[in-house]
Amino acid sequence: MNLADMLTYADIGQLTAIAGRYECECKRNSKHDLIQSILITLGSREFMESHIRGCTPEELRFLNTLLFDERSHFSLEDLLAAARQACFDTPSGKSGSYRDMVSRFKNGGWLFTGASQQSRYLFQVPLDLKNRFRDRMGEHLKEGITPSPEPAMYRGEGDLLAGDLLLFLRYVKDNEPELGQEGALYKRNQQGVMNALQIAEPLLGKGGWRFGYGRACEHYPPRFALLYDYARHRRWISEEGYRLKLTAIGEQFLEEGKSEKLMQLFSFWLRLYKGAIPNLPSLVYWISLSAGRWVTVASLSEGLGWLIKPFYYDDAGAILEQRILRMMLHLGMIRLGEGAEGPVVMMTPWGSEAAVPKLLLK
User: Fold this and answer.
1) Three-state SS for 109?
2) Separate counts of helices (H) and strands (E) for the chain
3) Backbone angles phi, psi at 102, to 5 degrees
C-alpha cells in the first residue's frame, strides 16, 4: 500500500500527529484536509532530501533495515529489535528508548498499523515512501564517494569460484583426504586442495579468532571456507570416519560436469554471513550503486562504514574490505585494482545485476 492509502485508514490522532510534526497548514478537525496537507508535504521533492539530512545515523540505519526487509508487516517486537540493532554505537540512554524511535517514525508518517482485524497490531511502511527513500539514499551515499581513473592493472575472478567448486569435489573424489581430531583437513591436504584450485589462498596460521563467518572459517581461509561450507550444505561431501568423501549426490553432480551458478553461491554467502553482518544485502546494494565506475575503497569505507556494526575484533573497515569486498571479488561481482590513492573497485555487470534484492524487483 502507498502513503495515500494508509493515510485513509489512519485514525485522526495519528494524522494530527503527522501534520504537527511537519507543521502542515490545514484544519486539524478535518480528516480530508489533514490527508491532503500531509500528502503535499511528504510528496514534495525537498521532503526526502531534508528528511535524510536531518536524520541521525541511528534513524537512517533503522529505515535502512525496514527498506531491505522482505516482510511487508512488522510486529512491535520486530521494530524494537530493528531500533536496537540501529543504535549499536549509541551510549545507553543518550538517544532515548527504542520505543521512542518507533513512536517518532509512527508520528512521522513512516509506520502505519494495518486496517484489517489480522493486521491491526502489525505495522507497514508505505511502498512509495520506501522507493523514494531508497532512491534518495542512494544519491546521498554516492555524494561522498571518490571516483578514480581506471587502474593500469586490476584483478577480477569472473566465474572461477564455480570452477573451483568442481575442482575441489574432484580432489575429494580422487584423494578422500584424512580429517584431524577437530574435523579439519590436515595442512598437507589443505595445501593439496590449494594446488588443485585456480585461485589459491595462504593457509591459516596459528592463533587469532575465527568464528561467525560459517563453520569452515575456523579452519580454512575465507574463499575455500565458502566452497567447503557450500559443498557440505548441498550434501556433496561427508565427514564420516575421519575421511572427507564425496557422497552419491556429489558424485552425480561431478559426473554431470555442470558448473554451479554464481547466483546460488552468492545467495548462500549472504545467508552464511548474516549472523555477523545482518544488513549485508543492503550493503552489497549500496556498494553496487556507489561503484558503478572505478571508485576508491577508502571513500567507500568512509561513506558506508557508519552502516556497518563491528563484529567482535572486526571493525567496520575490516568488515567492508575483508569480509564484503574481498568475497564479492571471489564471487565475480567486482574488480579490484590499485590506483594512485590506494585500492580502487568497480562492479562487474553480473555483480550489479545480482546486487539488487528480489524484493526490489517486484
Assistant:
1) coil
2) 18, 8
3) -60, -40
CA atoms of 109 and 2, how far apart (whole Å):
11
State pLDDT tens for residues 197-224.
999 999 999 877 788 999 999 999 999 9
Under 8 Å CB-to-CB from 29, ≥6 apart: which residues? none
Instruction: Find, among 266, 272, 282, the residue nearest to 348 by Cα.
Output: 266
200: left (phi over 0), alpha (psi -120 to 50) or beta: beta
For residue 339, give the 3-state DSSP assignment: strand
Check residue 85 and report its DSSP letter. H
Residue spans of alpha helices (H) in the chain: 3-9, 12-21, 31-42, 45-54, 57-67, 76-86, 98-107, 127-142, 160-175, 187-196, 222-233, 248-256, 262-272, 280-290, 297-304, 316-318, 326-330, 349-354
Whole-model pTM?
0.94
Nearest residue to 292 (alpha-carbon basis) of 188, 182, 142, 186: 142
Separation CA 173–CA 185 (nearest Å)? 14
Q: Which amino acid is at 129?
A: L
Closest CA to 307 of 53, 50, 63, 54: 63
From first CA to last CA, the distance across the chain in angstroms is 13
Q: At CA 12, angle to CA 11 and CA 17, rounded to 5? A: 105
Identify the pLDDT of residue 25.
87
Amino acid identity of residue 3, one-letter, is L
- Gap between the Cα atoms of 96 and 103, Å rounded: 11
Work out the average pLDDT over 92-102: 76
